[in-house]
Write a structure and sequence with these properties.
The structure is a single chain. The chain starts with 9 loop residues before the first helix and ends in an 11-residue tail after the last helix. The protein has 402 residues and is mainly alpha-helical. Helix content is 77%, strand content 0%. The protein folds into 2 domains: 173 residues, Up-down Bundle (Growth Hormone, Chain: A); 196 residues, MFS general substrate transporter like domains (Growth Hormone, Chain: A). The radius of gyration is 21 Å and the shape is globular.
Length: 402
């Protein structure tokens, strides 16, 4: 039986909707935090950087908590914890605490994002079926990117930081209410043995995931600045990139379930490399928009390929921890490459930063050899997924003696 035999149910789409609302609230506030700290609170540019940057460090640390939390207390508990923390972040922004309130909001937001994503990803994979994990992760990413993309538009429409913070409280609260109505099938194993925080088997997938995302601070930080000298097409190019990621992950996120995931991984990073190299060359407006769209299209596939491959080998009782650790590699590499890209751009120009990101994809291609070693074609078949669950001791094996 193929992976498409069972349709996604209402619980799954409610989960995606709650994820969208959670990230919509964060996206609404994010573009206004800097101006709020600098102008409303009268703080320095250095304070703006610290307030913005503390999120990533808290999110990275939060991954180490959210994974075990999702495995031992349940996916729903982790998801609700994340939404509750995001709602409290909005409250912290609104209280008259000045700069400490801004720090508190970003800290709560960082921890909330870590718990929200970990709970959502592990729960969504189980609702959609492990045999369709690639498609599930694609849909989940569409909800995330949709919320992050729509958030700044909503924030600009609301017109003030206070209203945006209120919107974050409302969005997280509505998502929280929706989530309380969704029953959870996962039951944590009582007295489950504690696993080591870092696992050797996750090193290569984590490196592949991290290296694939080195491009992100380059594009978000320098795309507009770089293309200002080549037709000033940066904003249009970034919009094309984001829309392509959103569209491709929604409609084509299931490709790693249908064909060998290595094909989608290597195909994706090859397209990303082409897009980055074209952008590095300073193209005209139409070529810049097209290459940014190509970059977004390619980026739509590596995470689904890596994530689905790893999750198929992971027992349900450990999926939350695995998702959180893989996400920690993302935070780590994005954080480090932010500093490196800034130094490269300062000394060698914006084009060099884009070429650096393309070179990192070469590293991801090398590491990918170990990620997909031993993975056969059509890994998304439902029968294969059932066998893996049987081997993990989570379901009875067909034909086994009772």
């Amino acid at each position: 039986m193929g992976f498409s035999a069972r349709s996604f149910g209402g619980r799954f789409w409610a989960l995606i909707g709650a994820t969208f609302l959670g990230f919509l609230g964060m996206g609404t506030v994010l573009p206004l935090v800097g101006p709020h700290v600098r102008h409303d609170l009268g703080a320095s540019d250095q304070s703006v950087g610290l307030v913005i940057g503390i999120f990533s460090f808290v999110a990275l640390a939060g991954r180490l908590i959210s994974g075990p939390l999702a495995d031992r207390r349940g996916r729903k508990f982790a998801f609700l914890s994340g939404l509750g923390s995001c709602a409290l972040a909005g409250v912290a922004y609104l209280l008259p605490f000045g700069l400490p309130g801004a720090y508190a909001g970003r800290i709560l937001q960082g921890f909330g994002e870590a718990c929200l994503y970990t709970g959502a990803a592990a729960w969504a994979v189980e609702l959609g079926g492990i045999e369709r994990s690639g498609q599930t992760l694609g849909y989940l990413s569409s909800g995330i990117w949709g919320g992050i993309s729509a958030g700044p538009v909503v924030g600009a429409w609301l017109g003030s930081f206070g209203r945006a913070a209120t919107m974050q409280v409302i969005a997280a609260s509505v998502a929280f209410a929706v989530l309380t109505l969704i029953p959870e099938d996962y039951r944590p194993a009582p007295h489950a043995p504690r696993k080591p925080l870092m696992r050797k088997s996750l090193l290569m997938p984590g490196l592949a995931h991290g290296l694939t995302n080195v491009y992100y601070p380059v594009v978000t930080g320098f795309l507009v600045l770089h293309l200002a000298n080549y037709g000033n097409s940066g904003r249009a190019a970034f919009t094309a990139f984001a829309l392509m990621v959103l569209t491709a992950r929604f409609f084509l996120g299931g490709l790693p379930d249908r064909i060998h995931p290595a094909i989608t991984f290597y195909g994706g990073i090859a397209l990303m490399a082409v897009g980055l190299c074209v952008l590095a060359g300073g193209p005209d407006r139409s070529m810049a928009i097209g290459s940014a769209a190509l970059l977004g299209f390619g980026y739509s596939f590596p995470w689904s390929a890596v994530g689905s491959t790893v999750l198929r080998k992971t027992p349900p009782s450990e999926r939350g921890s695995v998702v959180s650790l893989l996400s920690a590699f993302y935070d780590l590499f994005v954080g480090i490459s932010s500093f490196v890209a800034g130094g490269v751009a300062k000394h060698y120009g914006y084009s060099a930063a884009f070429l650096m990101a393309a070179a990192a994809l070469g590293g991801a291609a090398i590491v990918g050899r170990w990620v997909f070693a031993g993975v056969g074609p059509m890994v998304g078949d439902a029968e294969d997924g059932a066998k893996e669950l049987c081997m993990a001791g989570e379901t009875p094996c067909a034909g086994a003696d009772s």
